[in-house]
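Protein in question filed below.

…
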Amino acid sequence: MAAKGRPPIYLDYNATAPVLPVVAERMQAALTGLPGNPSSPHRYGQSAKDVLEGARESLAALLGFNRREITFTSGGSEGNTMLLRWPGLAEEAAHIITSPIEHPSVLRTCEWLSGRGVEVSYLPVNGRGVVEVEAVTGLLRPETRIVSLMTANNETGVIQPVAELARLVRAHESGRRVLVHTDAVQAFGRIPLPLRDWDVDAVTLAAHKLGGPKGIGVVALRGNWPLPGLVLGGEQERGLRAGTESVFLVEGMLAAAEWAWPRLEEERRRLEGLRDRLAGQLEACGGFFLNGGEVRRLPNTANLGFAGVPAQSLLVAMDLAGVAVSTGSACQSGAVEPSHVLTAMGLPEERVGASLRISLGHGSSEADVDRCAAVMLAEVARLRRSASRYAS
């Protein structure tokens, strides 16, 4: 519950962002004004189909793909599963390369693939949170089918060298082309995505990190790859995902992207300023640390903590004071295991257990950041006093 008389503050945009007003308006209009099924031949169905295909073309243009390469999904996890599972269904030797800091949907799919005989190799990660992509040249094999690396990490915000990875893969491909995939869910609408320049074959996106609705995402895929249908039935979405498309969710995703794209640079500067303002107020406290702070990060993300202060205790205390932050991936909420991302970076167990994630967004303000810092410093001091009394 928030402090009495003060509204709560939401600083967990990497989990999901509040829906933008323009998104809600566009979705409401589509929900009430487009009652038809896009697959129906009558005027109601064709009106819905026109909006669906118009959104597909607009999103494709923003991403540097063509409309036929865009498949709508329910979000990032479904998209990653759709793209990565096909080597496990083939009757030939296969190999995949990824990193140990990927989203759980990638890592769990790789576990499934391993159980079906697909070999999985993991690129190393340095202590700053950057995947060492140079190692890919020693991991590529004739049977390598997919190389997958996220654009930006959901916990640390560290931006990964996807373009360099793709360049190395292309230079060392043996025989057939390797599918290079990037999970850009956290980066979508926050940093530029020159995907064509990066020479990636596939990208996974979701709407709800940038103020769009939950339950809608995109797989953009260039070329002919043997992807089996993930949902069987009709021929919607090129046969990859049967079922009636949700036009109002698609409209919401497009509205969020169209809001974010012209503001990328403006929002980058604003959010970086807020992020650094927060860190500047916290760093005066003894034992403060910042994970991944030495390298390029998403402008909205700070993974930080205080030595000797358990993150879970601090998170609960801040929530009670009306400030919502996170200990990491929302897909891992409730888990007692330490962060797989921070562990892969080689950070000490004590630091991993003391790390929180603060992620800002379109509704964040200087007042929010200042109050977050004040509450955090007060609760750190209180928790340390309590620990000291207990120890004595």
Summary: The longest helix spans residues 366-391. The longest strand covers residues 301-306. The mean pLDDT is 94.
